[in-house]
Amino acid sequence: MSEYLEHELSTRFTLLKLWTHSSKPKFFKQNSNLIKAVVGDTSCGADAEMIESLPRLEIVASYSVGLDKIDLEKCRAKGIRVTNTPDVLTDDVADLAIGLIMAVLRRVSASDGFVRSGKWKDGDFRLATKFSGKSVGIVGLGRIGSAIAKRAEAFRCPISYHSRSQKRHTDYKYYSNIIDLATNCQILIVACALTQETHHIVNHKVIDALGPNGILINIGRGAHVDEPELVSALLEGRLAGAGLDVYENEPKVPEQLLGLDNVVLLPHVGSNTKETSKAMADLMIKNFEAYFGNKPLLTPVL
Ligand code: NAP
User: Fold this and answer.
1) Are residues 169 and 95 located together in one domain of the fold?
2) Domain range for residue 14?
3) What separation in angstroms does the CA of 125 have from each of 27, 115, 265?
4) pLDDT of the residue at 24
5) pLDDT tens string 2-21
6) Which residues form a coiled coil (predicted)?
7) Which of 120, 172, 239, 286 to pair with 74, CA 20 to 30 A apart?
8) Does residue 115 sit in the same domain as residue 213?
9) Cβ distance 207 to 238 under 8 Å?
10) How far apart are CA 49 and CA 26, in angstroms?
11) 119-160 pLDDT, tens per residue?
């Protein structure tokens, strides 16, 4: 829980802190008739069990744009409102996607380690790979995907994408099939929503289509990528590198990745800047104030 959000919530509402209780069932038993609103984030939302435990629940607010930790069907069936924090985090996540590309291709972490370890005096660092002009394929041309595309255009990268539908507002090349996208780009960036359909959307076939010179960047959710397949491809040289902000079982990261210097590993920090975490908290608070003031939600999902 962000300290700022915790403070802002506690000054306006009665805040019950599930994360300070060791027994979830006991917490729900004690408080189920009090709780009208739930605040979730990327690691904990409102699943079916929680929703069933809270008979007075009216609204779920996610401190994230991703909705994969919320049982949307259950919320819809019970008339529970849902909000998230879109747009305010788009720039940060897109910036970091470009940062990951740069870090992997130009080996930023490895060359930083080279200087720190004192090896420079023994010779130059090995050559890296150019970013400008590389073809970029984006899985999910939504808010974040589009912001990444705009940034990559500034690096003169040809852009193509795969989404459920072709976008009318752009000339980027559209592939209705992710394998065709992966075959035709050098850097594949995952920026789509995590749903049942996009679980493991990057699988063995997609990784092989991207090929031994390809780079995978994941700033969506860990479960978009079949992680054991990714690890095997990297170990076997079937993929040139990867930049990952998210993992299938956070905070666990596959052990084999830790030893690879063609991989850059971030601890799910896509939107974690001081500016954006405040903007996300303010948006969530405004949604709650609107809801409990009988006004329209600012960013309704349901
Ligand atoms: P968005 O505007 O709703 O975009 C989501 C995109 O996912 C859309 O382009 C959508 O395609 C695509 N998509 C959905 N289902 C698909 C499918 N079955 N196959 C292919 N594409 C599919 O959301 P956003 O604001 O850009 O955020 C995108 C995701 O980024 C979030 O859901 C979240 O998981 C992730 N995220 C990560 C971080 C981080 O810290 N790493 C931070 C923020 C967000 P259509 O347009 O065709 O429907």
Assistant:
1) yes
2) 3-88+273-292
3) 55, 9, 21
4) 86
5) 999 999 999 999 999 999 99
6) none
7) 286
8) yes
9) yes
10) 13
11) 999 999 999 999 999 999 999 999 999 999 999 999 999 999
